[in-house]
């Protein structure tokens, strides 16, 4: 109870509450803009959060992260264009319902399912917090190294069909982290005599280049689209009552989201796929999926909105981000010298609890906001793409320059922007690069620390948690090899 009251005291400040409102409402607006997304918004806002206290900056970023998927459901349902990539499955049943004249019902169900998923995951994780506080001290340098390695492996293997490319991009991220002055012997690595490389490649510069600048280039090179928006009339509160008819699907989908969110590299897409497949298999009308079945909307939205809170677990407990958005939040911790990991749960449990309560409040705030402002938000989709592109590019370069007042950083960000644009056109992932930079630095630090206490490779896994993590890595790789050979064998048999 003392921890809970202390966490409420942390949040009961005008600047924290203002950050919560700005982040959550801004996240909804960003989510409703097709082609922008939370990653771009967080990347642009990131430099500004460095001058704020950690709780204020993280609350604003969490607001965008947790609310963007609410807003992303609006264009997914109304114009068959997901506002954020994770709303893609919502289009399968949301847009057919709009064509039947049930746009208000589809939006109402999406909001209600998203709210249920968010609240469900936060309640689960608040009860899990004491368990995490007890387990966290068991993680030493070798356990965190193996957990980070498991995260890299999972990130790579979840990009099915692009595993080689994802592995190469993750290795590129790890390599980028090695550039500059090495922290132990203070020798220069891969600087090639260039003075501007001695301080290394800044994570925020790469983030802004790969996500914000590249997206600006992408929007500037495509034609402006004019959308024909349907009229949406009536109240949106009916979805809350209708959700009770699908409480089983909402609960299972939210559970998938919590489990997948806690596993680095898995996240929203896997939870959506599992929940949507479950809903279709157990439905009395499976043939209606993809044709406007409300169960599909509930499964998709409950799953993706239960992930953000769960994704904070590996970030806070081990300092391991699960995807690019939590990797950006990790930068805020590092700037303010707040190091996520076992010590955070032991010494600052009130801070951790405050973040979860902030997520709880933002879900309530967002769903109330959407119930009254959906028709206004629909007009956001009319903003021309090229205008958005110019605004994103301008804010991105201002943010990069404000970091160190360096035009060199702007040039580096522009270079990564071009590289990110090429990756987008080739439909290759950018997140492995960011996770490679973040996890690569963590792995190097923990490996150096662990090697001082081991003599043989077997000493590295002689503790229970280290051995379990090692076996998980072996099992994940082994299962992937097995399924790959099995699918190839099946394809050959069909030929």
Give the strand content.
Answer: under 5%
Domain module count: 1
Q: How many H/I helical runs?
A: 21
Report strand order across the widest sheet.
1-2
User: What string, H for helix and E for strand, traces the elements in order?
Assistant: HHHHHHHHEEHHHHHHHHHHHHH
Distance between the termini: 64 Å
Mean pLDDT value? 82
How helix-rich are the residues, as a percent range? over 70%
Shape: globular
What structural class is derived from the secondary structure elements? mainly alpha
| Sheet having the most strands | 2 strands, antiparallel
Radius of gyration: 22 Å
Number of strands: 2
Question: What kind of assembly state do the chains in view correspond to?
Answer: single chain
Low-pLDDT residue spans: none
Can you describe what's shown?
This protein has 495 residues and is mostly helical. The chain has one domain. Helices cover 73% and strands 1% of the residues. The protein has 21 helices and two strands. The chain has a two-stranded antiparallel ribbon. Helix 6 runs antiparallel to helix 17, helix 11 packs antiparallel against helix 12 and helix 18 runs antiparallel to helix 19. The longest helix has 33 residues. The chain is globular. The model has no long low-confidence stretch (mean pLDDT 82).
Summarize the structure.
The chain has 21 helices and two strands. By secondary structure, the protein is mostly helical.
